[in-house]
Amino acid sequence: MTLINRLIDWIDVRIGIREITRKELTGYLLPRNINSWYSLGSVLLVIFAIQVVSGILLLIYYVPDSGKAFKSVTDIMNVVPFGWLIRLCHAVGSNMMVLALLLHMLSVLFMGSYKSPRELNWMTGFILFVMVLGISLTGYLLPWSQLSFWATTVATNSANAIPVIGPSLVEFLRGGTLVGPPTLGRFFALHVGVIPAGIVILIAAHLFLLKRTGISTPPFGLNEANKPWQGESYRYEDHPGGIPFIPDYALEDLRSIFIYLACFLAVVFFDPSLFFPKEAFIPANAFITPAHIKPEWYFLANYQTLKIFPNEFIGLTVQGVAMTLLAVLPFIDRGRERHPLKRPLFMACSIGGILLWIGLTVWGHYS
Ligand code: HEM
Questions:
Q1: 90 to each of 148, 171, 174, 299, how far by Cα in Å?
Q2: How many other C-beta atoms are found inside a 10 Å radius of the C-beta of residue 205?
Q3: Distance 125 CA to ligand 1 centre (A)
Q4: Other C-beta atoms within 10 Å of 230: how many?
Q5: Residue 225: is its pLDDT beyond 60?
Q6: Do the Cβ atoms of 148 and 70 come closer than 8 Å?
Q7: pLDDT digit string (tens) for 261-275?
Q8: Ligand 1 center–CA 111 separation, angstroms
Q9: Contact (CB, 8 A) for 111 and 333
Q10: Is residue 203 within 6 Å of ligand 1 at its C-beta?
């Protein structure tokens, strides 16, 4: 014990570790009425870390070559010791990350935490959301299965509907007129290099903003803190009399992380093929189009929207408008009230939007 204390003293003299701990951890106070929804951000950080580690391990055996990719993934599943576990963690984790992201966004939406002065927190988060969708889309192609090949063909095809630049954009994404070996090279580079680097930078920006604005006070219970700040000068939202991050809220974070891990591992061990339709086990064949090719569950609403409009351009425009409105939401919804029940218009629009999304997803699944 004394040895540890002496080691801490030694470090403390050089970098003031006790001061950092006091300021950033034990003395970092959070609102007294903070709730469990605020731990979803930490859950997301853990999921991202698991994705990075499992992804690096997969890279040891995965071969990004259209002639070898499918076999390398089959070998990871059947030959490499614990390869199946690493691959399932990565594939299931990507779906869970989208789910956790949606829940994090919903909590921020309903508690009005995106309002002034947290517009930038929302916008960096929104870019993260788009990047996570992008990393999932590009990862889908890598096993080079029938599912990968045809889902990517359908997804990239939709960009054709964009006037003027559409066809060149599709050719740029695919590296040719059709999905083929150059597409795999491009998607591989995006999936393991460009997008993860972008996500790391954006997470750093997201956390930096959180550090500068301070965490929001939930709009429940403490009435005085319900209203967002809309002053002209910078102000850090501190929480005198609040609860310390360490140990109190860190334990809450840990609880949410363990609940998440329990759900995640339950899928990995008890329903490993939940996210794998049968086309995922057949190697890609450009000459055989499977009868029912569907994107992942979180793209089903987009896919169905493209199908219900008479032409794809209208479908794409509607989705582009919806995404843009969501991205700039803090600049549209500028009211000071944050309590969800005191924002009837917001509640009507968001519940309507969520039901529409669920409806389109179910329709897309069964159509
Ligand atoms: C990889 C993705 C993401 C990570 C790792 C992440 C992480 C975090 C963390 C650790 C926090 C602080 C604790 C909390 O409120 O949960 C936070 C807060 C926040 N996040 Fe995210 N986030 C991500 C994506 C998003 C997305 C997609 C949005 C919305 C479009 C978003 C919007 C916000 C906002 C507005 C806050 C401030 C909440 C407040 O102060 O009450 N984040 N995020």
A1: 16, 29, 24, 19
A2: 17
A3: 6
A4: 10
A5: no
A6: no
A7: 999 999 999 999 999
A8: 12
A9: no
A10: yes
User: Which residues on neighbouring strands pair with residue 29, listed in sequence order?
Assistant: 244
What one-letter code names the amino acid at 59? L
Considering only CA atoms, which of 156, 197, 191, 169 is closest in space to residue 69?
191
Question: Which tokens in the block code for residue 101?
Answer: 């992201």
Test site for ligand 1: of 128, 201, 333, most ligand atoms within 8 A of the Cβ: 128
pLDDT for residue 224 is more than 60? no
95 with 297: CB under 8 angstroms? Answer: yes
Q: How far is CA 1 from CA 7, 12, 65, in A?
A: 10, 16, 54
Q: Which two tokens stand for residue 27?
A: 């003395």
Give, in words, the CATH class of 33-298.
Answer: mainly alpha
- 145 in Cβ contact with 194 (< 8 Å): no
Structure tokens at 84: 């199946």
State in Å: Cα 87 to ligand 1 middle: 27
Are the C-beta atoms of 62 and 55 separated by less than 8 Å? no
Spacing, Cα 27 to ligand 1 middle (Å): 22
- Show me where the domains of the chain are located: 1-30, 33-298
Tokens 């329903």, located at residue: 271
The candidate with the shortest Cα–Cα distance to 36, out of 106, 107, 126, is 107
Nearest to 329 by CA among 37, 121, 44: 121
- How many Cβ atoms sit within 10 Å of the Cβ of residue 329? 19
Q: Which residue's CA is the nearest one to ligand 1's atom 15? A: 38
User: Which residues lie below 8 Å from residue 365, measured CB to CB, with a gap of 6+?
Assistant: 294, 297, 300
Q: Is the CB of 97 under 6 A from ligand 1?
A: no
What are 89-115's pLDDT values in tens digits? 999 999 999 999 999 999 999 999 999
Mean pLDDT of 189-198: 98
> Does residue 129's CB lie within 6 angstroms of at least one atom of ligand 1?
yes
Give the closest residue (by CA) to ligand 1 atom 42: 125
Q: How confident is the model at residue 292 (pLDDT cuts 50, 70, 90)?
A: confident
- DSSP state, residue 293: -
- Averaged pLDDT for residues 144-157: 95
Cα(286)–Cα(319) distance, rounded to whole angstroms? Answer: 29
The two structure tokens encoding residue 295: 């994107």
